[in-house]
Design goal:
Largest sheet: 8 strands, parallel, barrel
Helix content: 40-55%
Structural class: alpha/beta
Bound molecules: 2-phosphoglycolic acid
Number of strands: 8
Mean pLDDT: 96
Radius of gyration: 17 Å
Strand content: 5-15%
Number of helices: 12
Length: 258
């Protein structure tokens, strides 16, 4: 079975005390009954301490929200992938739509970031998804396919198997309007088909594809019951301990029944 993952992207939220209290509460709530992997993506400055607070639990992985396309050197303000792995980080978000939008990150730059991440033994969580006008024009499949070609399809098959994809339609991020289960399933199946066509279908079957965009405790069940939805990348609802735990428990109970 593909790995099921619930990832929380805190973006630029929470102060230090809040972040630490959140991590502690999560460690207490997630126990050995959980069969889903929980990933937290805090801001850079909290990463080291969050790793220390969660390392006693085998159910947690910690993600950075970004990494540099460069390996090291005179790049003020950047954080290199090997720096992240050197403090126990396991995952890194790459190509989140807010990075694409506010930092003009191109497909080519994201391809380099994925390479740096993999070289440093980090698992990239590569984010793709169309915006509202692209969806309105029904070009969403074309856009997602191009994003895969631009940043992902240069990888060797062995590397592809190490990555996670997050489908995050931009129109659903932070808007309260999530993709319906049908829309999510349709796009996840398409992404898997594209990966299968480029590589092979058994590789495509092994890759976890997360859905992101206004996931809440209320809609998580419908989304997680989709065959090709392997979990979620959660923004707003990952800032409330109770909501985030409820989303984790929803996936867990679906896995337990299955
Ligand atoms: P949201 O954010 O859950 O607040 O829509 C998702 C994301 O940006 O990853």
């Amino acid at each position: 079975m593909r790995k099921k993952i619930i990832a929380g992207n805190w973006k630029m939220n929470l102060n230090y005390a809040e972040a630490m209290a959140f991590a502690d509460a999560l460690v207490d709530a997630v126990d050995e009954k959980v069969s889903v992997e929980v990933v937290l993506a805090p801001p850079f400055v909290y990463l080291h301490d969050i790793v220390s607070r969660t390392q006693s639990s085998p159910f947690f992985g910690i993600a950075a929200q970004d990494c540099s396309a460069q390996l090291k050197g005179a790049f003020t303000g950047e954080v290199a992938a090997p720096m992240l792995s050197s403090i126990g980080i396991e995952f890194v978000l790459i190509g989140h739509s807010e990075r694409r939008q506010y930092h003009n990150e191109s497909g080519n730059l994201l391809a380099q970031k994925i390479d740096r991440a993999l070289e440093a033994d980090l698992i990239p969580i590569f984010c793709i998804g169309e915006n509202k006008s692209e969806r309105d024009l029904s070009s969403h499949f074309e856009i997602v396919s191009q994003q895969l070609k631009d940043s992902f399809f240069h990888l060797d098959p062995a590397r592809v198997g190490e990555c996670i994809i997050a489908y995050e339609p931009v129109w659903a991020i932070g808007t309260g309007v999530n993709a319906s289960a049908g829309q999510a399933q349709e796009m996840h199946a398409f992404i898997r088909k594209e990966i299968g066509a480029k590589y092979d279908s058994s590789l495509a079957e092994r890759i976890s594809i997360l859905y992101g965009g206004s996931v809440t405790p209320a809609n998580a069940g419908d989304l997680f019951r989709c065959k090709d939805v392997d979990g979620a990348l959660v923004g707003g609802a990952s800032l409330k301990v109770a909501d985030f735990i409820s989303i984790i428990e929803t996936m867990n109970s679906i896995l337990t029944i299955a």
